[in-house]
Design goal:
Two copies of one chain form a homodimer.
Chain A (H helix, E strand, L loop, with lengths): L1 E6 L22 E3 L2 E5 L1 H12 L4 E7 H11 L4 E5 L5 H14 L8 E6 L2 E3 L1 H16 L4 E6 L9 E5 L11 E8 L3 H9 L3 E10 H9 L7 H6 L9 H6 L5 E6 L3 E3 L3 H6 L5 E2 L2 E3 L7 E4 L5 E4 L4 E6 L2 E6 L6 H8 L5 E4 L2 E10 L5 E9 L4 E6 L3 E9 L1 E6 L2 E6 L3 E4 L5 E5 L3 E9 L8 E3 L4
Parallel strand pairs in A: 1-4, 1-6, 4-5, 8-12, 14-16, 15-17, 16-18
Antiparallel strand pairs in A: 2-3, 6-11, 7-13, 8-11, 9-10, 9-11, 10-12, 18-19, 20-21, 21-22, 22-29, 23-28, 23-30, 24-27, 24-29, 25-26, 25-28
Helix pairs in contact in A: 3-6
Chain lengths: 449, 449
């Protein structure tokens, strides 16, 4: 069995702890049952899949911006399919299926489960997924969905109306009668009274089923060609393109705990820990969650029903019930990502100044993981000054190698080719300065260490 | 007439916008009548003195840590007396009086007014001060105090019980019957019913009066000797050492607006502007004051009765009525000053890392004002890397001068002598790294530019 985990989406609703590169599913704040540790949504869902006993390979479909976060948090436990541009769930699922077929050599009869990584659920959810997979192999059903028992008439979910069940036992596949995407609240009330379920965004099908959908838009021998021609797929959702049109389709109802942790309000409801990072409170703060990713202290005195979060991107202080509105502001506040987890380690922007003549300086603290390296590159518009403050590594400057260690200062003028490799964990301060400080000012070259 | 403005005290109650070097009286947040500009408490009180028509020279008595802030905010308009160590108001006032006598050559008969710089008041306050000064010259009274009409039985002020006035006119000198320092609330109620007044901490006397008090502890020919032997004075308050003991003493009642802006709660009451710095709100925040001295945005959604303040020292989010409790926490949260206004310009700490072996790196962004210079110095435990990102200046390295400008990188290893002078406003990023990064690791040498 193959599982495709969808990990895309941009991170405005949990600003400032999420941004384009680090969306909500990478925040390491969720409690881990029976452990004082915390984990992120992608870490939780992959752990739960393994613990559920489902015997499946996991492939994460993600964006270029988030690829390094997936690698950093999940390592070799998963395959990664990177969308060359941000489109919708249908193209992302097609690309992942072509990867399974062309790169992993999966059989067309193999069951594929597509699932999001952000709902907060328990074991029953994975039993429902197993039932969906069984239905695909043992019934006429070509596409199986998961239907969550609604708890209120929400206008933000899709509704699936199933055939009346013969008996009220959970865990049976029911035929789908109708789909309704994001109805009004009153329509949602009527749908719920008729027995409709929320569309959980979990799908099961045989690999060949989706490959034939993909073939309508492009057919190639190699996976790379599908990546290159990614724009050939329509930018539509899987629900719209596939689920709403399929006639031979069933839904497995799921009545257990299921929660979308998409907003500060719903996320903090699940967190037993209320303080993350350098936080001091006077003990009178009630229902207040505080997240501090800055290296300066946060002091909180006597507040109520607040979420407070600080990162190099910014600071939010919000009454919890208002926190959903962050999405209206975050995109305006966004400048450049101030903190990123990359395949080679992490960096944070510690200072950014722009002068009236547009010359600017960006100062970062970077840490390369032992053994990791930054590609051989040069910049045409900026100089970089690296002051090494911890660890040992090797630098290449215009082809010449030399060791670097704590205390060394390297001045890299524009145009100079440079690469860096960490032997031990290597930390340095980088001052970039120039007239056009954009991430795109970079030319990469092959280099063999 | 001579005015001694007391500007000492450490800044824990308005943390994180105040610290040892920048106490509450330097925050530029107060509204300036008839102007969109804001000013600090020291700027406000000196402006008000000038506008009141009082013809007096102003001498600010301050600590070493705050001297540069006074210079930066008041410039040449005031004399500055720097306490060599932090003691109490009696020694500070003695030293300032010795300065007036020995350095400024003031006559022993000249009137001296001592006043704090933190109460928020209006014109009537300065009229009361003029009356105090007149009483000193035209009556038998040796020490005149100001008594503020109490508005509630506070346990945090000193109470002065005057003789019953012959008539209820304001602005007359009354004989002092009794002093009570910080009574209980019930005792305060009784005192108020008897007609007691709050001690405003404003004093008037002839210079010779205080010089004779000072002479009990030390007598020298030069001011420098008083500075050198500052510890000879007892570390007690002026109230205790002088005011409570003086028999020939009067108090001028003042019944106008007078408010101690010492806490976030009382300070924000006076501020018409509710947002300072890079702040975004959703328009539903009520009675919320937000101060942002960081270069990242703060977003505030739907909060009530909060004060939010962020600086390189830290972040506070407090229910306004609880904000006074910051004093219990600020000293523990304090690390090193993260932002300072110095005589040569400003600096802020943008990053600080310490490794397990105690090696650490401190990164600062510094701006020297045009014409300002940093003294000729060397460090024995740290290297410094300076990357110039704006302006032009001149650097001296082991005696050799050379020009510096935007884009230049200067590596200053430990032991190397260096000085820097700005021609235009000069901004650079400094990375300090070494095993013992303390401000005291500095040896200064004379240098003629």
């Amino acid at each position: 069995m193959q599982i495709i985990l969808l990990s895309g989406g941009s991170g405005t609703r949990l600003w400032p702890l999420s941004n384009d590169a680090r969306s909500k599913q990478f925040l390491r704040v969720l409690p881990k049952e029976g452990s004082p540790e915390t984990e992120s949504m992608v870490q939780r869902v992959t752990r739960q899949i393994n613990e559920s006993g489902i015997n499946a390979d996991i492939t994460v479909a993600t964006s270029l911006a988030q690829k390094d976060s997936v690698t950093s948090q999940l390592g070799d436990r998963v395959n990664i399919v990177t969308e060359p541009s941000r489109r919708h769930t249908f193209p992302a699922i097609c690309l992942a299926c072509e990867y399974l077929a062309k790169v992993k050599g999966c059989n067309e009869d193999e069951t594929v489960i597509v699932m999001p990584c952000d709902p907060f659920t328990g074991k029953g959810y994975y039993r429902a997924i197993e039932l969906m997979a069984e239905s695909i192999q043992n019934s006429e059903c070509k596409l199986a969905l998961m239907g969550v028992k609604p708890t209120y008439p929400s206008a933000k979910y899709g509704y699936i109306l199933p055939e009346k069940p013969l008996n009220e036992e959970e865990g049976q596949l029911l035929k789908v009668v109708k789909f309704t995407e994001k109805p009004s609240v009153s329509e949602a009330e009527r749908l719920i009274s008729e027995g409709a379920l929320w569309n959980a965004g979990v799908f099961a099908f045989k690999l060949g089923y989706l490959l034939s959908m993909s073939a309508r838009y492009q057919q190639h021998d190699s996976y790379e060609e599908y990546v290159k021609n990614y724009e050939s797929y329509p930018s539509t959702s899987f629900d719209y393109e596939v689920a709403e049109k399929e006639k031979s389709e069933g839904v497995v109802p799921f009545n257990g705990y299921w929660k979308d942790l998409g907003t500060w309000n719903t996320l903090t409801d699940e967190l037993k820990i209320t303080e993350y990072g350098n936080v001091t409170t006077d003990g009178t703060a009630s229902n207040t969650h505080i997240f501090n990713e800055l290296n300066i202290p946060i002091l909180v005195l006597g507040t109520e029903n607040l979420v407070i979060a600080a990162s190099p991107d910014g600071i939010i202080v919000s009454e919890k019930s208002k926190s959903e509105n962050v999405k209206h502001y975050a995109s305006h506040l966004k400048s450049r990502p101030m903190y990123e987890e990359r395949r080679w380690g992490t960096y944070k922007v510690i200072d950014h100044v722009e002068f009236p003549d547009k010359f600017s300086a960006l100062t970062k603290q970077l840490t390369l993981n032992p053994g990791a390296s930054i590609s051989y590159q040069r910049h045409s518009c900026r100089d970089e000054v690296w002051t090494f403050i911890d660890g040992e590594g090797e630098i290449v400057l215009d082809g010449e190698r030399k060791p670097v260690k704590r205390g060394d200062v390297i001045n890299i003028p524009k145009g100079q080719m440079h690469a860096l490799r960490a032997i031990t964990s290597l930390t340095f301060i980088e001052v970039q300065h120039g007239s056009n400080l954009i991430e795109e000012d970079i030319e990469r070259f092959p280099f063999e260490w």
